[in-house]
């Protein structure tokens, strides 16, 4: 019997363990941190052996295969020792894909991947496809393969998940964009991060497709460098394309499969240039899979966006409060500020991942009246914007940040939580940060 050791007992790890158990493998789960109660329950229900708060070498190094949580870096000695010992170390994505015949639409990028994943799933589900949504979103891919294997999956894929693939090959891959992010994990080498993103296409064949942003110089350069075997399907809001998707007189034009689809940008349920691109990418995927034209158009109009991504919370005394907690890097916050149409009180901060704030200066000068820092160490933010914005205040809770914003914002203005940083100094996750912000707004 094959012995599988799963490292990390979060959503992906427990899902991988459940699938391995269903496949009749000898499974052991090990987590250096204390396992959350809900996952302990799932492991007990599945009759799966585990250890919590430690790694015991003797129970791990006898594995035939290790499935590693995306949160565990490859370069730590523990993982290096396994690789040295000849034990294959893969991601949950690779493990699940090896045990499912489903067709996969894989989506990666520094920003927009959650919205594009949700939108692609929405378009295809509305078109009658038997389709699941997983990866970096919702219930793990492995758990779904174990319980109710769908014929198709839309997977949101982080660079960390892609680092652990070997044979994984989506039928349709989408790269939304690539900007510096998670550089602390990649030795502060942007090229290593780019290479990680392009792993999504490395196993694709000539019968597969790569949808990509033709306006993104980093992505275009990557396409030249990595020379994918897949058929290239570009989208652009800057140039007219003979094949792919582009913008013509405020209309999106999808031009593939010898059938043209046109839709007014004003009819999209999600506004902003970045959402126009997300809509293009999702529509191209749906069109490649021959979804009905009318259904694509209707679905783009009735789609509701992702929680914590430019999410309108409430209007209080004429001030709009927006939750963009999912903006954990500078580029995502750039999109958010670009979308602001009124003077803005900006809540920013958290765990800095090697951010360069200079690209935000023009938008901050134009749109931001005050900055509220929400983090433990705000030195870099204060240094970056101290000469641009007159008022910068430091806070250590969502409640405090919202109360100060309430005093600062005037009728007709906006309060925007768009942190540009990870959340782990004060919150469990970006979701926890977003929920606490929304609760604080509702309690005003």
What does this structure look like?
Helix 1 packs parallel to helix 7, helix 6 crosses helix 11 (273-288) and helix 16 (398-408) packs across helix 17 (430-442). Strand 18, helix 15 (379-385) and strand 19 form a beta-alpha-beta unit. Helices cover 36% and strands 23% of the residues. The protein has helices spanning 11-22, 37-45, 57-60, 77-84, 92-97, 113-126, 141-148, 159-163, 190-198, 217-226, 273-288, 293-302, 330-339, 361-367, 379-385, 398-408, 430-442; strands at residues 3-7, 26-31, 49-52, 65-68, 89-91, 103-108, 131-135, 152-156, 172-175, 209-213, 231-235, 244-248, 251-256, 259-264, 311-316, 319-323, 344-348, 368-374, 391-395, 414-417. It has 444 residues and is α/β, with parallel strands linked by helices. The chain has three domains: 3-87, Rossmann fold (3-Layer(aba) Sandwich); 94-302, Mur-like, catalytic domain (UDP-N-acetylmuramoyl-L-alanine:D-glutamate ligase, 3-Layer(aba) Sandwich); 311-442, Mur ligase, C-terminal domain (Protein-Tyrosine Phosphatase, Chain A, Alpha-Beta Complex). The strands form four sheets. It has a six-stranded parallel beta sheet with strand order 7-8-6-9-10-11, covered by helices on one side. A six-stranded mixed beta sheet has the order 15-16-20-17-18-19, sandwiched between helices. The chain has a five-stranded parallel beta sheet with strand order 3-2-1-4-5. It contains 17 helices and 20 strands. The longest helix is centred in the middle third of the chain and has 16 residues, at 273-288. Pfam families: Mur_ligase_C, Mur_ligase_M, MurD-like_N. It is an enzyme of class 6 (ligase).
